[in-house]
Design a protein that fits this description.
The complex is a heterotetramer of chains A (255), B (382), C (338) and D (448).
Chain A: H1 6-9, E1 25-34, E2 37-47, E3 52-57, H2 63-71, E4 77-85, E5 88-89, H3 95-100, E6 103-106, H4 118-125, H5 135-141, H6 143-147, H7 158-170, E7 176-180, H8 188-204, E8 207-211, H9 215-221, E9 224-229, E10 232-238, H10 239-244, H11 246-253
Parallel strand pairs in A: 3-8, 3-9, 6-7, 7-8
Antiparallel strand pairs in A: 1-2, 1-4, 4-5, 9-10
Chain B: H1 7-21, H2 23-26, H3 35-58, H4 66-82, H5 87-109, H6 114-133, H7 137-140, E1 146-147, H8 155-160, E2 171-172, E3 175-176, H9 179-202, H10 204-214, H11 216-221, H12 227-251, E4 254-255, H13 262-275, H14 282-297, H15 302-308, H16 314-325, H17 332-346, H18 350-361, H19 373-376
Chain C: H1 2-32, H2 39-57, E1 60-61, E2 76-77, H3 78-92, H4 94-116, H5 126-148, E3 164-166, H6 167-170, E4 179-181, H7 182-204, H8 206-216, H9 218-223, H10 228-250, H11 260-275, H12 280-297, H13 300-305, H14 309-324
Antiparallel strand pairs in C: 1-2, 3-4
The chains are: A alpha/beta (255), B mainly alpha (382), C mainly alpha (338), D alpha/beta (448).
Chain lengths: 255, 382, 338, 448
């Protein structure tokens, strides 16, 4: 038996199955729109604490939109469905409120803020609670950023910006991390470096969702995988199941 | 030839024509059944409808459309002064010159988009206004406005008839163009413009403009050159404005520089948005509402209000008169401001959206998009 | 030479007003993404803060009507009755002192406007924003007209700033004749002070850094747990205070009337766009640039060659700049282009 | 007359018949075209006048004061109140029972100080509300535009505040009448006073509002001052509504001029004067003389806007409430009792115009416009505050005295802003109507 979750209190019927606990992060039948276009069409999945999940699928399958919906940014707009993180109803929150609950999205284009230095980008992440790693600790782990702390952040290379984006997420005390295409557009050497960082994050035990074109690279780090197509979930399973399923790989991942 | 118009469209044109032509009777109970105001309804209806072809279809917000109105007026009055009091050449000149003006301004302004386009058009219109007001006085007669004089050559008229004593009137082959005949002339012009607008809305050209509005960038990436389409729309809407301007001169042969001022350009933007951007009828309704307010509300004075509230006891009457006095007479601008705000806040799609909602509530439609064919084209401003 | 220097001064002074208004306008646009047509009205309201303050402290105490006089003799302000010489000098300094009134009042007006109206329009089309704020501008000016009438209401600068400064002699230029009104010099310096304060706030405080970040990318700032909209409300309040202060201090130069805001509105939009939408330094630069060009175009020598140039110079420059520099002097790509 | 006219009439008839068939409602079928019917002749027991004044825009305060004067005039015409100038007016045709026994009613409209808006609003009053006469306006452009409209529609227009020579000069109309003086008369009136106060050796610099009224005023004043022997250093055109005039004022400093003439009115005048004073022009010494500023057309409401800056500045005005003749006193008393403040010159001219129209109808015995025009033309009267006055038939301009005034240095009341320096008599101000050209046009009645 477990303690009643928020879901139960709100009249949600939860069948107590053999896991006997509500999942750490739970997505229930979310539907989201960009204006009139129906992008996310009823996606549901759960993640356990500390798990790493790959969200895979072809271009335009709705992966990024799903991540953005989960991070509660204004677009796409969530029309229905629920998102729960550790008993907190994210679907009722806006991005800044979700961030206060420990949600962090590292967007695919990194969204390093121009006109600000590297250090200012990091300070920005610690303007509000909950704060994560102190900035000095970040510099220890990312010596490159320390070197460039007073440089305008957008003048750095793509890989460095990706580092900063991840570092910025770590500067907050995060419960779940959404990584959107962390390797996109980066040279192989840099990819390796980033991969190492993601590995570290995983080792710390931060629950993570990775969206990645490079499915193989993503699956290497993941416990489980969700495959999407045209806004819907077409497969859920372990990372290994995906790697072993030729047809699945061929049909949805082109690998 | 008119293959792109459905039966419903024809009915719409017919219905519209009937509504316009009977308006002298139907609008009288509202105090609007007199020629000068009815003429204004038609003229500004044309102006707003033309503006909507640019703004409603392509999303390009011109803030200098009044310049074309002014050019149309000046051209028409010059036609009266130089050639003949017949209105047909005046209208042709008005539309033509406004068109030429639109080619030049449009060609330059359309090199930019968004607010930069708006400011470019605003700048051109303000330059026209300032120059017309002062330096160009020989052409425009400055602040007073261009008027007919007894010394005008009027070469065509004078070749056939001896001028009578006093200033001649504008005429359509003998029918003087003031009062109700003037209104009917404008009304016919409005109906023709409505028909043309409907055709543009339904044509592939109209579809193309809408496509530009919804995704200009994508069209650019595909190597598609949108500018000729935009320029054509700009010129067409400039010509509508020129027609409106020349009709103003037809019903009242005077052309003033303030017709080109930014406030006049702003007015047509307000009319269009008030009525409903991108809708067929909306801009005409918007024009009607604003002109009605301007004419009717500004004419109220304390004495009329006293009569209106005469049934109240003295103290209550004073309060009522004072309070309503804030919004009418010299306070009519306040009413206008409040109405804009209310409409934009509560009816983002303008009056047309309001009508659509009422229509739906009355059970006429079962859901969005099920309304009248013209409102189906309604879409929020982008 | 003297003439040119004086025209530069004129341009700087004119530009100071443009820059202050455009600064606030850009601040609001850059943060909230709202095209605020009521910004000119805020400038006007600021000016009327000075008028109101002056009205309050000079509330007339009517001496009794003499026998046979139809209208009473000029009244004496009650402040003079109540506080004697101190009262008189407060009245003398009423314009600068009314800044103290204007700051809280304008802040409140700004916050109320943003919370009550503007916030509902963040995601609406720019056209809707223009319409609703334009409607608001009309309403505000009509209310002011109702209370203060349509005539300009002259406000005096403190007596010690009446008259002119002999600027040439400051620099020991005895062969030149350059005088300039004290109050206009003060206005110019005041504007630099305000502009400097705004930039310092944005550049050197964490709050300012957050705002700058929000102007660049409000979504990401939101993802970092910051409620940027609340901060932008404060920014709106600041913009409103800046416009208000510009208005207060302008009253001795231009007697304010209810229409003041509309007179500056179009011009300040041109300034903002020429500067580049969303660029604060651009707005300031464009303000001063257009002010100076306007002054030069008004010189007889120039007008002799190009009659009427002074009436269109601002628009002409705007067209030229926008055609050669697609996004204005310092605009960024993608802002307000569709 | 050529026979082609006849033909044209034929077409006209056919066309008009078509028009009637189309437009059957109201106006076309209203009454047969009787011999002496003109537009909107009252048929019931009231007569409606149209007061077309600026209610918004820069002249809104003047418009409000004009409207007050009109309402007072209506009261007096209807026999209410103390009668004001009706008691001093030399023509005794008005009986205080309305006009020709019909009670006077009125309608109002907002000109917005724009020609278009003013014509729209005049048209509304004529077409919809049946006004038999239109009066008002606070700017020459508007007056000329509305006057032209009234000529076309056959409605008498009694101009309010309009100072341009054009109104009764090149744009004069048979149906338009002006009581207010004009720029030319301002110049003539100012001349001797300028000579007396500032001598004959002066160098003048003009700043002129860049539109028709500004130009006629500049020309008139320039002619006057040059006749005195003054030199004109420069005439500079300034945009209307410029707000900040600093860039036009600074060149005056080093130009060698010792007199600045501001051909501005309204808000422009308030601004340019305020700023000129700020630039220290009044404290300057040039060529060994005190620098002077002249504002040829003054109004008390504008003087109020300029505040203390107006002190000691010369100008002209049509009428001022401080005049002590019986007529002015009666009017000020009546107006002051009603509204608690003295009337402005705009209010005065509007009040007088209304009375003059009513009186003309009484004397003509009809509202029939051509007859009323006849009654107004070359009408001699007195007791309206400007001494003996002639409504000149040749150009419909009143010939009467005008005032040279100075901003009061020592005011006795809040309203005591202008001090009368000199009352310039009618003979001095009378000029040949031919100098401005123009043509009154016909007075034949129009149906409407």
């Amino acid at each position: 038996m477990t303690v009643a979750t928020r879901g139960e209190l709100e009249g949600e019927t939860i069948t107590l199955n053999e896991k006997s606990a509500s999942p750490y992060f739970s997505v229930k039948d979310i539907h989201a729109y960009y204006g009139e276009s129906y992008i996310v069409q009823g996606v549901s999945f759960d993640i356990a604490k500390g798990e790493v999940l790959s969200l895979l699928g072809r271009n335009g399958a709705g992966k990024t939109s799903t991540l953005r919906t989960l991070a509660r940014v204004d677009t796409p707009a969530l029309k229905s469905g629920e998102i729960w993180l550790d008993g907190k109803p994210l679907h009722k929150m806006r991005a800044f409120e979700a961030a206060a609950e420990g949600v962090q999205l590292v967007p695919e284009d990194r969204r390093i803020i121009g006109g600000l230095t590297v250090e200012e980008n990091l300070i920005l992440a610690q303007v509000t609670e909950p704060k994560g790693w102190p900035i000095e600790k970040i510099y220890e782990h990312f010596p490159r950023l320390a070197e460039r702390r007073n440089q305008e952040a957008t003048t750095m290379s793509g890989g460095e910006q990706q580092m900063l984006a991840v570092a910025r997420a770590l500067a907050r005390d995060l419960k779940i991390l959404f990584l959107d295409e962390p390797y996109e557009g980066l040279a192989p050497v840099i990819v390796q470096e980033i991969e190492k960082i993601v590995q570290q994050i995983r080792d710390i035990g931060i629950t993570t969702i990775i969206v990645e074109q490079n499915a193989v690279a993503a699956l290497r780090l993941s416990d489980r995988a969700v495959i999407m197509d045209t806004g819907q979930v077409v497969f859920q399973g372990t990372a290994k199941e995906v790697l072993d399923n030729e047809q699945l790989r061929h049909e949805y991942l082109a690998i | 030839m008119f293959g792109n118009l459905s039966r419903n469209d024809w009915l719409l044109v017919l219905g519209f024509a009937i509504v316009v032509l009977v308006s002298p009777w139907t609008l009288t109970p509202f105090g609007a059944g007199y020629p000068a105001l009815l003429q204004k309804f038609c003229i500004f209806g044309i102006f707003a409808m033309g503006f909507n072809i640019l703004f409603g279809l392509t999303g390009y917000l011109s803030f200098g459309h009044a310049a074309f109105l002014g050019v149309g007026s000046y051209a028409a009055v010059w036609s009266f002064k130089l050639f003949t009091m017949n209105v047909i050449p005046a209208v042709i000149f008005g539309v033509l010159f406004a068109g030429i003006f639109a080619v030049v301004i449009g060609f330059v302004s359309l090199r930019r988009s968004g607010i930069y386009f708006s400011i470019l058009t605003l700048a051109f219109a303000q330059m026209s206004y300032n120059l017309a007001y002062s330096v160009l006085t020989p052409i425009t007669n400055g602040e007073t406005g261009l008027q007919l004089t007894l010394q005008d050559p009027r070469i065509i008229d004078n070749a056939f008839i001896t001028p009578g004593e006093g200033l001649p009137q504008t005429d359509l082959f003998g029918i003087p163009m003031n009062g109700y005949p003037g209104f009917y002339f404008c009304a016919v012009a409005l109906i023709i413009c409505f028909f043309l607008t409907l055709r543009i809305f339904r044509s592939p050209f109209g579809m193309m403009l809408r496509a530009i509005k919804s995704n200009q960038n994508r069209m650019r990436y595909t190597g598609f050159n949108t500018r000729p389409y935009l320029l054509t729309a700009f010129i067409i809407s400039g010509m509508y404005a020129g027609l409106a301007g020349s009709l103003m001169a037809v019903t009242d042969p005077l052309a003033g520089a303030e017709r080109m001022q930014w406030t006049a350009s702003g007015e047509v933007v307000l009319m269009t948005i008030l009525g409903g951007v991108g809708t067929l009828i909306g801009p005409i309704l918007g024009a009607g509402v604003i002109k009605y307010f301007e004419n009717i509300f500004s004419s109220f004075n304390d004495r009329i209000l006293e009569q209106l509230f005469s049934f109240l006891p003295d103290a209550a009457r004073e309060v009522a008169v004072w309070f309503t006095g804030l919004f009418v007479g010299e306070g009519w601008h306040l009413t206008l401001g409040v109405v804009f705000m209310l409409i934009v806040i509560f009816l983002p799609g303008g009056i047309m959206e309001g009508l659509q909602r009422i229509y739906n509530r009355l059970g006429g439609g079962s859901g969005p998009g099920a309304g009248a064919p013209d409102t189906a084209a309604a879409q929020p401003a982008e | 030479m003297d003439a040119i220097i004086i025209q530069i001064l004129n341009g700087l002074d004119k530009g100071a007003a443009y820059a202050l208004i455009a600064l606030g306008l850009t601040l609001v646009f850059g943060t909230l993404g709202v095209v605020n047509f009521a910004h000119g009205a805020l400038f006007m309201l600021g000016a009327f803060c000075a008028v109101t303050f002056n009205k309050i402290i000079t509330w007339p105490i009517q001496p009794p009507k003499a026998e046979g006089q139809l209208f009473a003799p000029p009244a004496k302000p009650w402040f003079e009755y109540a506080f004697g010489d101190l009262g008189a000098s407060i009245i003398n300094w009423s314009v600068p002192i009314s800044i103290l009134l204007a700051i809280p009042v304008m802040l409140l007006i700004g916050l109320a406007m943003e919370r009550g109206l503007i916030r509902h329009f963040y995601k609406r089309a720019h056209a809707d924003q223009i319409l609703v704020t334009f409607g608001l501008a009309i309403v505000l000016q009509e209310i002011v007209k109702k209370f203060f009438g349509a005539n300009p209401l002259p406000q005096n600068a403190p007596a010690m700033f009446n008259g002119t400064a002999d600027i040439a002699s400051w620099f020991g230029l005895t062969d030149m004749f350059i005088v300039y009104p004290w109050w206009r010099l003060i206005y110019f310096l005041f504007s630099l002070l305000v502009i400097g304060a705004v930039f310092a706030f944005l550049q050197f405080t964490t709050y300012g850094m957050v705002v700058r970040a929000g102007m660049r990318d409000r979504e990401t700032v939101g993802l970092l747990g910051i409620n940027i909209e609340r901060r932008f409300t404060v920014v709106f309040g600041i913009a409103s205070v800046v416009a208000g202060l510009a208005g207060v201090m302008y009253t001795p130069i231009l007697p304010p009337d209810y229409h003041l805001g509309m007179d500056f509105l179009v011009l300040s939009f041109v300034v903002v766009v020429v500067g580049g939408m969303g660029s604060l330094p651009g707005a300031v630069l464009a303000g001063f640039l257009l002010g100076i060009l306007q002054s030069f175009a008004s010189m007889n020598e120039v007008k002799g060659i190009l009659p009427g140039i002074d009436q269109i110079i601002i628009y002409l420059v705007a067209v030229t700049i926008l055609l050669t520099m697609p996004r204005g002097l310092m605009g960024r790509k993608g802002v307000m282009e569709d | 007359m050529s026979k082609l006219i006849f033909n044209r009439r034929g077409i006209l008839k056919v066309g008009a018949a078509g028009g009637v068939a189309l437009a059957a409602p109201m106006h076309f079928v209203k009454g047969a075209f009787a011999e002496d019917m003109s537009c909107n002749m009252p048929t019931g027991d009231t007569v409606t006048l149209g007061f077309n004044v600026p209610q918004s825009g820069p002249y809104a305060d003047e418009g409000a004061d004009e409207l007050r004067a009109y309402q007072l005039a209506v009261k007096h015409l209807n026999g209410e109140g103390d009668g004001g100038m009706m008691n001093t007016f030399t023509s005794k045709a008005l009986k205080g029972n309305g006009i020709l026994g019909k009670k006077v009613a009125y309608v109002t409209g907002d000109t917005q100080t724009k020609s278009d808006a003013a014509r729209d609003s005049a048209k509304r009053m004529i077409e919809k509300e049946g006004a038999v006469m239109i009066t008002g306006g606070s700017s020459s452009g508007v007056a000329v535009a509305v006057q032209g409209l009234c000529q076309e529609m056959g409605i008498i227009f009694m101009a309010g505040l309009t100072h341009s020579n054009d109104t009764t000069g090149k744009d004069k109309k048979r149906y338009g009448f002006r009581h207010f003086f004009n720029a030319y008369q301002s110049g003539v009136a100012l001349g001797p006073v300028l000579k007396e106060e500032y001598g004959t050796d002066r160098r003048a610099y003009h700043l002129t509002a860049d539109y028709t009224w500004g130009w006629t005023q500049e020309e008139s004043i320039k002619n006057t001052t040059e006749a005195l022997g003054w030199e004109t250093v420069a005439t500079v055109r300034t945009p209307v509504g410029a707000g900040d005039y600093s860039q036009y004022i600074t060149p005056v400093l080093n130009s060698g001029a010792d007199v600045l003439i501001l051909n501005h009115y309204g808000k422009d005048m308030v601004n340019s004067l305020t700023q000129a004073i700020q630039f220290g022009l009044k404290d300057k010494q040039v060529n060994g003389k005190n620098f002077e500023i002249i504002v040829p057309l003054f109004s008390r409401l504008m003087a109020k806007g300029a505040g203390d800056n107006i002190k000691g500045i010369l100008g002209t005005t049509n009428w001022n409430w401080s005049l002590d003749d019986d007529a002015s006193q009666a009017f000020v008393k009546s107006f002051g009792a009603e509204y608690g403040a003295p009337p402005s010159q705009a209010a005065h001219t509007c009040y007088v115009q209304t009375l003059l129209y009513a009186d003309a109808c009484e004397r003509a015995g009809t509202f029939f416009a051509p007859k009323v025009i006849e009654a107004l033309e070359d009408f001699e009267f007195d007791g309206m505050g400007n001494g003996p006055t002639l409504y000149r038939g040749a150009d419909h301009q009143c010939m009467k005295s005008a005032l040279v005034v100075k901003g009061n240095e020592n005011k006795q009341s809040e309203y005591d802003l202008l001090k009368v320096v000199k009352v310039v008599d009618r003979e001095t101000l009378t000029y040949d109507p031919a100098i401005f050209g123009g043509d009154l046009g016909p007075s034949d009645a129009k149906k409407c």
